[in-house]
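Figure 2 data, in text form.
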Amino acid sequence: MVKTYKSKRDWIYGSIFLGISFLFLSIVVSVYFEKDLLGWIILAFIFLIVQTVLIINFFLLKIKIEGEDLVVNIIFDIFRVSIFKITKIRVGETMWSGFNKCGTSVGGLIIFSKYKNDLYITPENQDEFLKELLDINRHIVIEDLRKK
């Protein structure tokens, strides 16, 4: 059985996304007015690639529990770890934490595993997600950093 969770999105990540978009767009527009057609085509192509990657990450990021594995998916699986290898989960971290950053908001989860490959994720329903993980592996330590 596969349980799928969408990634939570917030205004901070959205504003970073818009800021990067406007920065690249302003560079592309300024090169266009310099009458450098080849440079403009190259920058426009790079802009489209960056925008595509950001949009795909922003809207198609999914977190799945497939049997005994935790999987992060953006079109294809980009991260997989056995739930039995998870040692600790830190709740309430920022998106600047963790080694593999697969979250689209602040206040997410950092998943620590035996392989030292930390994962930052932001499932929409964190409490349900944590309950699902604890149902599979009761030995996971939950460290809650949220203000109570």
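Caption note: The mean pLDDT is 85.
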